[in-house]
Amino acid sequence: MPNDYRKPEDVIDEILSRYSVADLREQTEADLVIGDELFYKAKTPIEVIDQGEVNLIRWWRIASGGNMYEVRRFKNFVWCSCKGFFFSKRMCKHLALTAGVYCQHCRVFRVRVGKLCSECDHVQNHFLKPVVVGAIMN
Question: pTM of the entire structure?
Fold first, then answer.
């Protein structure tokens, strides 16, 4: 009997070589909640390096923990090249970034810098002064 076992890396590389909807998995509402939790638990920054579209499938190159991953999305069907997604076929922290997560500070949709939106990142790192609504200026 031949051994049908294939290494995860080989399967991921094969999928990376094509853009097919058949490789994508359906994302559910529960997956979005899981994705937010995984994203906020991440110990290293996660950021989008590049993005594009091939055969109606949108893709993103994601830098995370010193590694590069590719995330693909067609409507609510998704795929990620990380091993977490390979084994679970469910939402991962990289997919969460492309679905949109909320800023931990102001709750604005679509985090841009780490776990904060760009404005909160600039304020917390003293690049911008905080905006006070309703303040009286002399």
Answer: 0.69
